[in-house]
Design brief:
The protein has helices at about 1-5, 15-20, 75-85, 110-115, 115-140, 145-160, 170-175, 180-190; strands at about 25-30, 35, 45-50, 50-55, 65-70, 90-95, 100-105, 165, 195-200, 205. It is α+β, with helices and mostly antiparallel strands and about 210 residues long. The protein folds into 2 domains: about 1-140, Jelly Rolls, CATH 2.60.120.10; about 145-205, Arc Repressor Mutant, subunit A, CATH 1.10.10.10. Strands 2-6-4-5 form a 4-stranded antiparallel beta sheet. It has a 3-stranded antiparallel beta sheet with strand order 1-7-3. It has a 3-stranded antiparallel beta sheet with strand order 8-10-9. Strand 9 and strand 10 (about 205) form a beta hairpin. Helix 4 (about 110-115) crosses helix 5 and helix 7 (about 170-175) crosses helix 8.
Length: about 210
């Protein structure tokens, strides 16, 4: 309950009590899958601690990074899929040890009608995730890979609040649906332009 009150303080006390009593809290170790593609979505997911990575898969099994979820945030896609009783189109993994509150779908209509703070939270979650996805689509559709890489690194910097990113070239390539060779070459170009500094196990952003 303490984590819920801390990260979702915008909710009125009665709403906090309701979702605490009706929700199911689960803990996930880093690297654990939380949502699998094709799984029925029976819950809405609120993040209480840690960090969760969401991505979708292409027809040939390639991965495409979507966004991170942090404490105080919810999965917008879980709102949609759970409310419409649909299967998940995304996969979610804990990239840090994480605590998640799952709210069964049968309570969604009640929460939307009864609590204004929940209604506002759901709408704001839709809006912010829609903007992130729109930015990602624009990046893929209108920008070359070097520009997409720079945009990706900026997103990582903002998400983790640090200029030192502990990411492998292979991870970045998977997230951008590219190859490790291409990403390594572009990162080396960025290093030559004094935009990044490459270390053995990390990338330091200089912009």
């Amino acid at each position: 309950m303490n984590s819920l009150q801390t990260h979702f303080s915008r909710f009125e006390p009665e709403l906090l009590d309701t979702i605490s009593s009706k929700g199911i809290t689960k803990n996930f170790k880093a690297g654990t899958q939380i949502i699998g593609s094709g799984e029925p979505m029976k819950y809405t997911m609120l993040v209480l601690s840690g960090r969760i990575k969401l991505y979708t898969e292409g027809e040939n099994g390639e991965e495409f990074f979507m966004y991170y979820l942090e404490p105080g945030q919810a999965c917008a896609l879980s709102f949609v899929c759970a409310a419409r009783n649909k299967k998940s189109d995304v996969e979610a993994f804990a990239i840090e040890d994480s605590e998640v509150l799952f709210i069964p779908v049968e309570y969604m209509d009640e929460l939307m009608l009864k609590y204004k703070s929940w209604y506002i939270f759901v709408v704001e979650t839709y809006r912010s995730r829609y903007q992130e996805l729109l930015d990602a689509i624009r990046s893929v559709a209108f920008h070359a890979m070097d520009e997409r890489l720079e945009y990706y690194l900026i997103r990582q910097k903002n998400a983790f609040n640090t200029s030192t990113l502990h990411l492998t070239h292979e991870q970045i390539a998977n997230d951008l649906n590219s190859s490790r060779v291409v990403i390594s070459r572009l990162l080396k170009q960025m290093e030559n332009q004094n935009l990044v500094k490459l270390h053995r196990n990390s990338i330091e952003l200089l912009f």
